[in-house]
Every structure is written in structure tokens, then in C-alpha cells.
Amino acid sequence: MKPLAYRMRPKNIDDVVGQQHLVGPGKIIRRMVEAKLLSSMILYGPPGTGKTSIASAIAGSTKYAFRKMNAATDSKKKLEQVVEEAKFSGTVILLLDEIHRLTKPKQDFLLPHLEDGHIILIGATTENPYISINPAIRSRTQIFEVHPLNEDDIIQAINRAITDKDDGLGELPLQINDDAMHQLAIATHGDLRSTLNALELAAKSTPKNSEGNIVLTLEIIEECMQRKALVQDKDGDAHYNVISALQKSIRGSDVDAALHYLARLIEAEDLPSISRRLITIAYEDIGLANLPAATRTVLAIQAAEKIGFPEARIPLADTVIELCLSPKSNSGISAIDAALSDIRAGNYGDIPDYLKDAHYSGAKELGHGIDYKYPHDYPHDWVKQQYLPNKLKSKQYYHPKQNGRYEESLGKQYHRLKNAQNS
């Protein structure tokens, strides 16, 4: 029997879980489907987030033939067979997994068939396509990022799976405890495939109780996922509370508290949450007071991801200790949030004409680029010149702090330039 995750793949665009920025009402892929104007695309994002599901949903909604290949393992001959089918039937949607590993002979064969529309290519990759995919393919496709599913998305998919009697587990007398459902929803960090695989294993390996029901508890889900849950609080928010406590302990420079909350996350083997949060902390809370700490945090996260647990605890602990004891500054996040606040409130003015693009014919007639002073033509590569719109010319977003030598030096330079500009 095919796995539950395979059986529950969406049959049309309305069945897609999550990714509403692509398939929601009025969004780009839904527009393509509804207008029957499909174009080749590349979907990139983490495993289990719906790349294959979107491709099968597009095919199901349009009634085109749907074929799936792997760029790394399938031969050029198989690709030739798909193209021959497309020529005979009119159009074939081809999902090409691991498209970043497409060889040049296969690519050269495929390109003309993308041009004439016989093949609508949907490439899937976990790699950044702007770096990993050949420009010839990239220029003939639209690139869409697929995001990890959130907790509500995962719960929606679980409920659909346990009630679907045709493809899901609806024929089983399943009951799932609240804490077990919460663990299913958060433990795979948005990987729906892994969640459904664990759910199916739990459902089919758990005997019925005396009342004839299959009751899935937290302990059963932990065993089937091989991931421990954090100790749950009464509201089921322990996961988020621990992450919040970790950041606030680092922000408050309490090493022992931060290590305690880090240990909770390590015990749950929640490396993705640890990684995201520590990088955020490094830039949000330490920031310009000790910018090299942010670089070292990124390197430590990369090391932790390469070596995995249990050894990953070592670079993570070192990083948490350094971030706790580092001087702190939130001037960067405060500055950009203040600037965004003005933009979102409509508080912006016209860009001065001399700052506008002048690299096209007719720019001079519009007065663009005229009287611009090129700083490198002046002593010390600086010249007094207004850069903000007139409406905001006296605005100050960045307010330097003096909690570390690096930002202290930046602050002195900032005030020196401000004074020169206003003199």
C-alpha cells in the first residue's frame, strides 16, 4: 500500500494545504490554473512542504497528463519518452525533482520543448535556484518559494487524513489526545510528509483499547516520530514559551537561565528552532554592539547542523554563553522599524531629482541626475548633500548606543557626519 502522505496528495488546487501566497484566491498559481495559462516554474523550499503536492494539484485542476521524474536518477531516455507523449497528447506537466542536478545533455534536450509549450516544467528543489540552477533553465521559468507549513496547516492536514475514508485513515476508530496532536503539528517543523508518515505508523501499530478505539497518546507519537516533546503546560504552549524564555534570558545576560532553556530545546532535538532563534538574537539583541558575534553565531549553527546531536550541543552552548555575556544593542532593529513605520503610514516624499537614475536617454530632459555630487571626487570621499526627501530631511532613524566599542565608534562617525551635513 502506498504511504499515507502519498495517498493524501491534493487532487486539485483547492486541496493544497498552506502556501496561500501561491495558491490562495487571487494568487499567482491559482490565477494560472483558472486562466489555463500555465507556465513552467521552479518551486524551492524545505522537504515535505508541498512542492510535489502543488504540482499534482495543478495537474488535477487542469486535467493535463502528469509525469514525475528525478533529474539525478532518471535517464535521458525516460525524458525523451515524456516528450514523445507530450507531442502526441498535446501537453504534459512534468514534475522534475532535484532539478538543480539536471545534467547539460538533459537540459539541452528539454529546453526547446519548454519553448514550444509541449512540456510544462515544474522543477522542485531544496537548493536556492538563483545559485544552483543553470541560467538557461532559470530564464524560462518562474521561481516560487515554498514555505514550511505552520501549526494550523499541519493540524488541518491531520484532520483531513483521519476523516478521509477513501485515501486516509477514516476507516479506523482513531482518537488523538490534544498533546499528541500538538506534538504531531510542531515536531517536524513544517514537514507534512514526516508528520503523516508518523501518524500512519502510530495508527496502524497501536492496538485497540477495551472500547474498540485506537487512542494515540503523546508517548505513542513521541515513539513513532522519534522526537521528544517539551514538557507541556496547561495551554499547550511550552514549545513557544521555551523559545521566548531563551531569547529573553540571553537579552537579559543570564547565562545559566539561557543554558537551561537551551537544554530543553536540545533534549527535544529541536535544532531548527534553536538555529532560527539564535541567529535572530545575534542580530536583534546584540547587533552593532558586537557584530562579529553574529558571524560566529552563523558559523556555529552551520557546524551544529553538520555534526548533529549530541555533539551539536557544544557549539550551541558556546554561542549562547557568548551572546549572553556580549554587550547588547537593539539600535539596528529599532532604526529599520522606525523607517518602516514611516513608509507604512505614507510618510515619504519625492526622491531628490539629482539622486534619480540617469542611465537612460531622456533622463536629462527630466532633470534626473543633474547636479549630483559624486562623493569620490571630494576629499575624504564625502561631500555635503541632502539624500532624504525634503519632507523627511531632518528625520533620524538610527540612534547609536554605547554598549560596545564597535557601535561606539560607529556612533562617533554617525554624529560627526550628521553635524557636517547640518552645518
UniProtKB/TrEMBL annotation:
Keywords: ATP-binding, Nucleotide-binding
TM spans (from-to): none
InterPro entries recorded: AAA+_ATPase, AAA_assoc_2, AAA_ATPase_RarA/MGS1/WRNIP1, ATPase_AAA_core, DNA_pol3_clamp-load_cplx_C, MgsA_C, P-loop_NTPase
Pfam families: AAA, AAA_assoc_2, MgsA_C
MF annotations from Gene Ontology: ATP binding; ATP hydrolysis activity; DNA binding; enzyme activator activity; single-stranded DNA helicase activity
Domain (AAA+ ATPase) ranges: 37-149
CDD domains linked to this entry: AAA, HLD_clamp_RarA
Domain of life: Bacteria
GO biological process: DNA synthesis involved in DNA repair; DNA-templated DNA replication
Assigned protein family: Belongs to the AAA ATPase family. RarA/MGS1/WRNIP1 subfamily.
Protein name: Replication-associated recombination protein A
